[in-house]
Amino acid sequence: MKKLIKSTAAAVAVSTALFAGAAQAQQKIGVVDMMEVFQQLPQREQISEQLQTEFQDRFEEMRQLEQKVQELRQKQERDASIMSASEKTQLERDLEQTISEAQLKSKALQEDTRRRQNEERNKLLGKVQDAITAVAEAKDYDMVLESNAVTYMKADNDLSGAVVEKMTSGN
């Protein structure tokens, strides 16, 4: 019985010492709103313009195919009464072929633009992560969380503005 009381007392003493130490060593935790950071970055607009330029020829090709489909449909409606059966059949085939070509090229263009957007977004995300690390180290934060993982925080723990500033200044 005495051993049980002594071991319990020792355990309480150790626990008290640990909790006291933990209370003194509070961690400094920052929060970053990633959506806000991305919306404020000028690099986002530059990337958008870069991708627009990169795919400009293909967008123009799609516009021309869509215009051709529209012209073929108009011709089909306008000239149906004066066309022979073979001309109607040929026009229908041309229309179907053009529609198929447009659909294939549109799908490929969407996939390529989505892939490139993801590549550029991931590059930018890496730079944002580096900026978050630099800001956290400069301000002596022990941990930084995304705002969507936090239910409450003090405004002075929000590092979003500092991260945007770091990204725009390049320092």
TrEMBL record:
<dbReference type="InterPro" id="IPR005632">
    <property type="entry name" value="Chaperone_Skp"/>
</dbReference>
<dbReference type="GO" id="GO:0005829">
    <property type="term" value="C:cytosol"/>
</dbReference>
<feature type="compositionally biased region" description="Basic and acidic residues">
    <location>
        <begin position="108"/>
        <end position="122"/>
    </location>
</feature>
<protein>
    <submittedName>
        <fullName>Outer membrane protein</fullName>
    </submittedName>
</protein>
<keyword id="KW-0732">Signal</keyword>
<dbReference type="Pfam" id="PF03938">
    <property type="entry name" value="OmpH"/>
</dbReference>
<feature type="signal peptide">
    <location>
        <begin position="1"/>
        <end position="25"/>
    </location>
</feature>
<dbReference type="GO" id="GO:0050821">
    <property type="term" value="P:protein stabilization"/>
</dbReference>
<dbReference type="InterPro" id="IPR024930">
    <property type="entry name" value="Skp_dom_sf"/>
</dbReference>
<feature type="region of interest" description="Disordered">
    <location>
        <begin position="103"/>
        <end position="122"/>
    </location>
</feature>
<comment type="similarity">
    <text>Belongs to the skp family.</text>
</comment>
<dbReference type="GO" id="GO:0051082">
    <property type="term" value="F:unfolded protein binding"/>
</dbReference>
